Amino acid sequence: MNSRDENAYAALADVLHDSGPIEGEARPTFGADATTEGQRLLMLATGQTTVDSAIRVALGRPRLDADSVGPMWKVRATRALDDKVRSMASRMGISRSEFIRNAVAAYSISSQ
Predict the structure, then answer these.
(1) How many other CB atoms are there within 10 angstroms of residue 94's CB atom?
(2) Which of 5, 21, 40, 53 has the highest local Cβ count within 10 Å?
(3) Number of CB atoms found within 10 A of residue 98's CB
């Protein structure tokens, strides 16, 4: 375990310790039931409604380039376009930036 993971684990342990005893029944879960329950808990913890969006939220945004920070684009849009992009990205469970990156990538592929 690296130091970042150790710090995250220590912070989680502190939160759990401060929250008092865990109440309720514990029961082991295996196989498909364990998968379903794990997915349910992940969506609950991240506030997402799909497993894919919950995984994206839990893992965070991946680096765009493996070894460096990619270039940043700054563009202006109309308020109406911004509202549409925000709405569509929200429905898809992704950030506005990820939505725009995906749209530009799809356009660049389709227009070749």
Answers:
(1) 19
(2) 53
(3) 15
The reply to whether 97 and 54 lie within a common domain is no
Same domain? 56 vs 1: yes
What is the value of pTM for the model shown? Answer: 0.44
Helix axes 79-92, 96-110, angle to 10 degrees: 100
Please give the single-letter amino acid code of residue 48.
Q
Q: What CATH number is associated with residue 88?
A: 1.10.1220
- Distance separating alpha carbons of residues 76 and 103, to the nearest angstrom: 16
What pLDDT does residue 55 have?
A: 81
Dihedral of CA 33/6/12/61: which sign? negative
DSSP 112: -
**Same domain, yes or no: 52 and 106:** no
Domain shared by 43 and 72, yes or no: no
